[in-house]
Amino acid sequence: MASKAFKAIIVGGGPVGLTAAHSLSRANLDFVVLEQRPKVVLDAGSNLVLLPIGLRVLSQLGLLPAIEAVSSPMDKFRRIDHNSKDIGDTLWFTHFKDNHGAYPRVISRHDLMQIIHDGLPAEAQAKLLPNKKVVGVSTGPDGVTVTCTDGTTYTGTIVVGADGAHSTVRRQMRSEALQGPTATEVNEEKPFLTTYRSLWVRFPTVAPIKPGDASETHGHNCTLQLFAGKDTSVIGIYERMEKPTREGARYGEADELAFVERWGHLPVIKGGMTIKEAYTNRTQAGMVNLEEGILSRWSWDRVVLAGDAAHKFTPSTGAGCNTGLVDIVVLANELFHAFRAVRVAENNPEAFPGKEPILAAFNEYQQARFETVRDGMKGASEATGAATWSDATHRFVDRYVLSRPSLVKLFANRTAADVAKTPVFAYIEGDADQMVGKFPWAYPMKVVAP
């Protein structure tokens, strides 16, 4: 028997959480978003790279024109070593354009968040609640309850944990699972391994850096990526740690200064500034660990995880945020199928699925995503290993394989067919697909009937 009400509690108001809000709003389903920060849209965080798979999701939500207005397309990576010597440009981004119809675009986290937020209708925006730090998640036969530090509680049908690598929902999910009958199915307490730490720095875009520039500096134990926007640029510097760890870390300004002391001499771009100069002129900066890993279970009972809460990549391929957006697409589609099945079976367009169909949808979601996410995580790790010359093989590949355009094109074309299998929302109608390349998308967008 279908339940009489459905409500999703989304924990985490980042790009993945707000995309989940869009997916539910478009399905006319009730939800609330709980965000621990004082505002949902903050001027904080590093820049993000939107790949064609992520751009397609945002395009289907009607957000692509706004994205294009405040982001910069990138056609290639310029690559130099620690001594500012050329080691060969890579044309990955040009191959994305040829194969899938769009260049990757660099955008500030603030601008992306503002666009996704403003794309929601007013009644949906009213369901985005800041200053809601979650401390408890408990499931029951009829629903789930979420408790916040301010004493408020929220009840619903499911919880979607989109609260990042240090997910509170994931910890609460594990605690619930430990009380169940099959402890062997419980995720590890510390599922992610950290091999690299990162300092990111935002600074004004000034010559010789131009909007749209993408550059990498490679060498032993340290690499950096530059992404230049119209007004500001961001560098992410990735340092191989002395020993991998599963322990978390909090860094302060003293740690940043020590990091700059170690690597401040490295060039950000050929003929341009150094890391130290960028840091001196910073408008924002931060230092974090770069966790890597993928959970064996993405859901437990009425709780399901998406994005960095379920899997974490190094940033080298720019795939992290995009992967989270596609997670929401697949999860939303599986829930849509569950809703459609019960409404057809009961001949009732207002019916909602019960617990078992929802849990089955969660399982189908993980099965549909697991191998693709695992391969993406491995690719990101290999890219960071090559850029930091972690061993002789990685150094050889970086200097003498990835510098050859014909081989890069071969690699891009070998993965293009799998990329083209990335799904879009099965139930959202919109304009015709604007991204058309040599590899047709396996799942075309649903176009509004004329």
Automatic annotation (TrEMBL):
Known cofactor(s): FAD
Organism domain of life: Eukaryota
The keyword Oxidoreductase is assigned to this record: yes
GO molecular function: FAD binding; monooxygenase activity
InterPro entries (alphabetical): FAD-bd, FAD/NAD-bd_sf, FAD_mOase_fung
Keyword vocabulary terms for this entry: FAD, Flavoprotein, Oxidoreductase
Pfam short name (any one): FAD_binding_3
Keyword flag Glycoprotein: no
Domain spans labelled FAD-binding: 7-182, 281-340
Family: Belongs to the paxM FAD-dependent monooxygenase family.
Name of the molecule in the record: FAD-binding domain-containing protein
